[in-house]
Every structure is written in structure tokens, then in C-alpha cells.
UniProtKB/TrEMBL annotation:
PANTHER family, alphabetized: DEGV DOMAIN-CONTAINING PROTEIN DR_1986-RELATED, FATTY ACID-BINDING PROTEIN TM_1468
SUPFAM superfamilies: DAK1/DegV-like
Keyword Nucleotide-binding: no
Name assigned to this protein: DegV family protein
Pfam family, one: DegV
TM region positions: none
UniProt entry keywords in alphabetical sequence: Lipid-binding
Length: 276
């Protein structure tokens, strides 16, 4: 029996040791250029070019064919997608699931709507690998994966909401107040998979302090934390170091965002996923 984990590129992962893993790329586009969110994408260059671009940009979910290519040849496939409340990615993966199961006897595909993105998706991917390593039955892995999502959270610290507003994800009135006078917005992935603003603060020290407060308010007590950043390693490390000061045994990984998360978080943004 061949098992595989598949995710869209908003997970910001390209490799997963010890298990078959594939990524279906999301595309970021302007009127004159397409950026495929894969391992070869120069994310910094993309951000620079988009900052200078005066027109409208948008994103496109992986095609059904792209998902089918990822599923091909495997008996059991566990799929994790960007929140279905803000993207067609989940629906595209589900369409591919129906086709794949219809065309291949005795295969099983389960699509998890993460209701989130980035680090929270990564936490689920790691949990699914753990359960695959334990050789649990397909249905039990699905059950444990879904339950795990009920015990993880995602928080954002963003300096701009420009691209969210341009794509209708948040109101332009809300976006216009962010990024002025060094103000950062804190938000979380809501239970419905949308962006829920929770606070604002000014200055990096207050960003770190507020992030820790939000994590602890959510029930964090020293478990896994995954921190992705958009060209802001210093802030990511400051948040990591503060968590370790309070919880010395915490399992923390810091890494750069890929294309899709950088597009929405924008330069300076931070995403923090945690177990709670």
C-alpha cells in the first residue's frame, strides 16, 4: 500500500523526509506576468516587482489536473489545502478526489480544509506523517488529523493588508489604517477560515509581547510552534527567543514564507502556528 501526503503551496514546504510528499502550486499573476509558487520561485524578486506594479494582481488555485498528478500512483492520499473560505483550492482538490477515486478502484483520498494557511498547515502535515509512521489505518489517521486541527491555531502580525484588500479578503477601510506610523495588525484564522482582526500595536517590542500574549490566551503551553516570515528573520527570531525564554523545551522552527503567503502577508509579515 502506497501512501502520500499532498498540500498546496501555501504550506511553505517542499520536502518531507520519510514519506512521499508533493506540492500543488498556486499561481500569483498580474496582467503581464505569472509567478508559479514553487521551489524555484524567487520570492524576494516577486515581492519587489509586485511592490512597483500599479495594476491589479490576483491568485489562482491549483488546477484539478495538478492535483491529479500529485495523487497518481498512490493508494491512500492525505491532502491539506488553504482555507476554503478564501480560496477555491479546497474545491479543486475535492473535484480531483472524486475523479481519482472513480477512475481507480480501492483508492482513498481525504482532503483536509485547514481553514488556515502556512504554519498551521505545516503542523498538520507533520502530524499526518507521524500517524503514517505509526502505520495506523486510513480512517484513524483522518480522524486524528481532524482532531489535531481543533488543537492548533494561527496568528498573523502584518504591516500591510494591501493585497488582502485588493483581492476582496478584507475591506479597504481596514487595510488603509495598517502600515502607517509603524502600526502592525494582529489577526487570527477564525473558526470559519476567514481573517479575524484581534488587535493593533506599534513597534517591534510590542509586536513580540502581543504575539506571546495571543499564543498564551489561545492555550499555548510549550508545544510545537512554526514561525514563517516574509523577509523579517529578526522579528521571527525575537518571537522564537521569547517563547524559549518562557518555555525552554518548546519545539520551534523558523523559516521563510513561500510565494503565496508572502503575497498576502507582504514584506515584514509574520505567521505563527502553534499547538494549543
Amino acid at each position: 500500500m502506497k501512501r502520500k501526503i499532498v498540500a498546496d503551496s501555501s504550506c511553505d514546504m517542499w520536502e518531507l523526509n520519510g514519506v512521499d510528499f508533493a506540492v500543488a502550486p498556486i499561481t500569483i499573476s498580474t496582467d503581464n506576468k505569472h509567478y508559479v509558487d514553487n521551489q524555484e520561485l524567487d520570492v524576494h524578486l516577486m515581492s519587489e516587482e509586485l511592490a512597483k506594479y500599479k495594476g491589479v494582481s490576483h491568485t489562482a488555485c491549483p488546477s484539478v489536473g495538478s492535483w491529479l498528478d500529485c495523487y497518481e500512483g498512490f493508494d491512500e492520499v492525505f491532502v491539506i489545502t488553504l482555507t476554503g473560505a478564501m480560496s477555491g483550492t479546497y474545491n479543486s482538490a475535492m473535484t480531483a478526489k472524486g475523479i481519482y477515486e472513480e477512475e481507480n478502484e480501492n483508492v482513498k483520498v481525504h482532503v483536509f480544509d485547514s481553514l488556515s494557511t502556512g504554519p498551521e498547515m505545516r503542523l498538520l502535515i507533520e502530524k499526518l506523517k507521524e500517524k503514517i509512521d505509526e502505520d495506523l489505518p486510513f480512517e484513524e489517521i483522518v480522524e486524528k488529523g481532524q482532531d489535531y486541527l481543533n488543537h492548533t491555531r494561527l496568528f498573523f502580525a502584518l504591516k500591510s493588508l494591501h493585497n488582502f484588500a485588493m483581492n476582496g479578503r478584507v475591506s479597504k477601510a481596514v487595510a488603509s489604517a495598517i502600515g502607517v506610523l509603524n502600526i502592525s495588525i494582529f489577526a487570527t484564522a477564525s473558526e470559519e477560515g476567514t481573517i479575524q482582526q484581534i488587535s493593533k500595536c506599534r513597534g517591534e517590542k510590542k509586536v513580540v509581547k502581543s504575539m506571546i500574549e495571543h499564543l498564551e490566551d489561545a492555550g499555548y503551553h510549550g508545544g510545537k510552534v512554526r514561525i514563517s516570515h516574509a523577509d523579517n528573520l529578526k522579528l521571527a527570531h525575537n518571537v522564537r527567543d521569547k517563547i524559549l525564554e518562557l518555555y525552554p523545551n518548546a519545539d520551534i522552527i523558523v523559516y521563510p514564507m513561500g510565494g503565496l503567503c508572502t503575497y498576502y502577508a507582504e514584506i515584514g509579515g509574520l505567521l505563527v502556528g502553534c499547538e494549543c
